[in-house]
C-alpha cells in the first residue's frame, strides 16, 4: 500500500510540477541516493509477492528522475546503483557457492532485484545511459547470478518470470538503444547471455510435465514459434530427434481441440506445412524422375519418414478430428482446416475410406446413399498433389459438402474417437 501511494504521488507530481522542478527537490535527491530497505521497508524481503510487483513502477519513476540531467555522468549513475550493487554482491556470495542451498529470503531478494532492474531499464531509451547499465551488469559478472537463480528455481514462476521479463526488456532495441558503433561488442554479448538464459530455462522445463493449454500466453507463444518454423524451416523440424518431433505432433493434437480460435488456426497451418512436406518426401521416395540426383531422398529424410510411419496414429487421429469438425454444427475456421485435411486424406486413403464408411453407416438407411454421393463429390476434381490450386479446389468442395451436411438432419452423432481402421499410406 505504501509503495503504491508513493508511486502515485510521484506520477501526480510529475504531471503538475514538471520533471525539472521535481528532480531538484531535496526529498527526491534523497530518494535517488538512499533507495534501500532501511529507508523504504517495501524494498526488503518482508514484503509479499503482490507488493513486490510495484517495485518495477517505483524504479521506473526513480530512473526517469535520474535520467533528467544525467547526461554521460558515469560516476553519478554508478553511485545511484550502489544499493543494487550491494544486493548483487551479497547474493553472489550465496548463489554462486555450489555447496550452499539458498533459503526463501534469497529467493525473494532475487525476485525484488529483477523487478527493480526491469523498472530501471524501462526509461533508458538513449544509447549512452542504456550502455552504462549493460556494462555494469556484464563486466561486474552480475548476469551469471541471475542465470544461476533460474538454474536453481526453473520450476518456480515467481522467480523465473521477473528474470525472464528483465532479459526481455534488456534485449528490446527500443529507439535503437542497442545500436552501438561498429566496434561495440554489446549486441553480441547481450545475445550470448540471453541465449544462455533460454537454454538453461528450456533444459530445465523440458523435464516438467506441462499442459500448454492451461497457460494461454505460453501456448500462444509456443504455437506462434512452431508456425514460423513450419513455414520457413520445416526441414529443421524434420531433422529433430524423434522424441521432439512426436511431442510436436502431440501438441498439435491438443491444439486442434483448443477453444481458442487463434491456436486452432495456427495448428491447422502448422499441420498443413508438416504433412505437405511428408507428402512431398514420399513422392521423392517413389519418384521415377530421370535424374535422381536432382530429386532424391536423403538419409535424414528417410529416417524422418520412418518416425512418421511409426507415429501415423497421431496424424490419423488429427484427420479424424478435422473431419469431425466438418460434421459438427458449430464448424469453425473451415478454410484453415481444409488444407491439412486434404493432405491427410491423400496420405492415408485407406483410413479415410474407413472413416467415410463409418460416417455413412451412422446415417438412417434412407439417407446413406445421399451421404455417400456427397463424399464422392467432395473429392471430385481433386488430383493427387498438394499444390495450392488443388487445395483451393478441395476447399470449395468442402464448403459445398459442409452446406449439404448441415441441411441433412442427423439422428446419430459421429464420434471423433474413431480408432485406426485402415493401413497407412506410408
Give me the secondary-structure topology.
Blueprint: H1 2-17, H2 19-23, H3 26-33, H4 49-52, H5 55-67, H6 74-80, H7 82-95, H8 104-121, H9 127-139, H10 143-152, H11 157-170, H12 186-205, H13 216-232, H14 234-238, H15 242-255, H16 261-285, H17 299-310, H18 312-327, H19 334-347, H20 349-361, H21 365-378, H22 388-406
Helix pairs in contact: 1-5, 5-8, 7-8, 8-11, 10-12, 11-12, 13-16, 15-16, 15-18, 16-17, 16-19, 18-19, 19-22, 20-21, 21-22
Share of helical residues = 55-70%
How large a portion of the residues is in β-strands, by DSSP E?
Answer: under 5%
Q: Ends: how far apart?
A: 64 Å
**DSSP helical segment count:** 22
Mean pLDDT: 86
Biggest sheet overview: none
Radius of gyration: 29 Å
* Protein structure class: mainly alpha
Large-scale geometry? elongated
Low-confidence stretches: 411-426
The sequence of SSEs as H and E is: HHHHHHHHHHHHHHHHHHHHHH
